[in-house]
Specification:
This protein is mostly beta strands. It has a single domain, classed as Hypothetical Protein Aq_1857, Chain: A, CATH 2.60.300.12. The longest helix is centred in the first third of the chain and has 11 residues. The C terminus is likely disordered. InterPro entries: ATAP_core_dom (IPR000361), HesB-like_dom_sf (IPR035903). This is Core domain-containing protein.
Amino acid sequence: MKIRITPLAERKLRERLGSLPGTIKLLYDTGHACGCDGINVLLILDKPDIGDLHVEAGGLPFVVNTQHEIFYEEQLKLDADEHTTAFVLTSDSQLYGKNIQIRDLRGLELSEYHSPSSCEILPRSN
């Protein structure tokens, strides 16, 4: 798998990485067994998880889980929006998402991280 990173996306990713070590993970997040469609997200992790595969992405440390690799074509392009925090993931034949967000999870234990699913109904805060 290979991701071509545009200069704008590379600049924004490097800004998010900062001076701390980290790995960027492309994740197809299906929530917590709710059965609805998933969304693409970018995570910044301390290190790759067991089962992650290295993805060629220029000089950036990118991985994808072996089980999620099937959701993506072999050649992808990652761009960014100049005015927002969103990224855009495409291939020659499809748009994977134009509002892909990035979450920095460095320093968190897996048990601390809870990704709200789009299928969950969360209580309102007053």
